[in-house]
Design brief:
By secondary structure, the chain is mainly β. It contains no helices and twelve strands.
Length: 207
């Protein structure tokens, strides 16, 4: 609190201005206090006023994303998280898809989320592309966190296979019988199946 090993914050501050601003991401290192000196035309004070530093940490936890879009290469569903133990300094949360757990190549999911809301909806048919993770940052009135909390993106592919119809209606231009298929390897996200007749293998004009 006596200003040992001090490092100046910004430049000198003129009388009448009672704030010294500095950018986010300043490394605390071994600093324990912020100290303020007044200076006359003769000399700087020997003994400063001081304030002990408190490093605020407010990361979310338990980030979870279960892909409910059952097509390969596409994703959708809810991205959820648990709030920090204290969110007093948090203004909002921002969730992104990214190409790494550290948030590289990130793309914002929807818009910023207010404190008290711990979920963001991912629209169905969102392209997975090169994204490997979903990441969540807390943001204060100053800036967004540098280090997010991440969860790996697992693309759910629940396409059935071996679809078969053995026509047991013996009249020309008429069909009857059972449509059968084998279930996907992972059916954990499947709620039900729907079968249609269509005019192409991609489901055109299905009925």
């Amino acid at each position: 609190s006596t200003g040992t090993s001090r490092s100046q914050i910004g430049s000198d501050v003129s009388v009448g201005t009672n704030v010294a601003a500095f950018a986010a991401d300043f490394a605390r290192a071994s600093h324990s206090h912020v100290v303020v000196y007044a200076e006359s035309s003769l000399a700087e004070q020997t003994t400063p006023a001081s304030h002990e530093l408190t490093d605020t940490a407010a990361s979310v936890s338990s980030v979870s994303f279960v892909d409910r879009d059952l097509d390969a290469g596409e994703m959708g569903g809810d991205l959820t998280w648990a709030p920090p133990g204290s969110a007093a300094a948090v203004d909002e949360y921002r969730a992104y898809f990214a190409t790494s757990a550290a948030g590289a190549g990130r793309s914002l999911i929807g818009s910023a989320v207010t404190v008290g809301t711990n979920v963001v909806a991912v629209a169905a048919e969102t392209a997975v592309g090169s994204f490997t993770h979903a990441v969540v940052y807390a943001k204060s009135s100053l800036d967004e966190q540098t280090t997010p909390v991440a969860v790996a993106v697992v693309d759910m592919d629940a396409t059935v296979f071996w679809v078969h119809l053995a026509d047991k209606d013996l009249d020309a231009t008429e069909l009857g019988g059972d449509v059968t298929w084998s279930p996907p390897g992972d059916a954990s996200a499947v709620a039900l199946y729907r079968a249609f007749f269509a005019t192409s293998s991609t489901g055109t004009s299905r009925s």
